[in-house]
Design a protein that fits this description.
132 residues; elongated; alpha+beta; 25% helix; fatty acyl-CoA hydrolase activity; Thiol Ester Dehydrase, Chain A
């Protein structure tokens, strides 16, 4: 499980003063990028050396409670499943112990031309222990 903290800025909010719904997707994207980095996966090198990239295939999102300007949020990322070409994650946005947003995200591995590809063995070796 990986944790990523962030602050809500004025630019993240809508006219009602709450976080605009699409910005939760930005928050969880930032957290996923940091999660991959902590795993030791350099996505720039992965593309340059192997011609592979990760892309979001599917997001199932539940908006439970609003976040507001200046809130400190934590995004928790948990790996649920790994297959030949897919990674399934659960990501939650929390304010303290209060759950605000939950998403199940499916990532796929693609060639830089957009064709499906298998996740490399070295990356699978970093992901599989997370499932225990």
């Amino acid at each position: 499980m990986h944790s990523f903290d962030l602050r809500v800025y004025y630019e993240d909010t809508d006219l009602a003063g709450i976080v605009y719904y699409a910005n939760y997707l930005k928050f969880i994207e930032r957290a996923r990028s940091e999660w991959v980095r902590v795993l030791g996966v350099d996505q720039v090198q992965m593309k340059a050396r192997q011609g592979l990239v990760f892309a979001v295939r599917r997001v199932e999102a539940d908006y439970l409670r609003p976040a507001k300007f200046d809130d400190i949020l934590r995004v928790v990322t948990e790996c649920l499943a790994v297959s030949g070409a897919r990674i399934e994650l659960r990501q939650e946005v929390l304010r303290g112990a209060e759950r605000l947003f939950v998403a199940v995200v499916t990532l796929v591995c693609l060639t830089d031309a957009g064709a499906p590809a298998r996740i490399s063995q070295d990356i699978r070796a970093k992901l599989l222990p997370l499932l225990d």
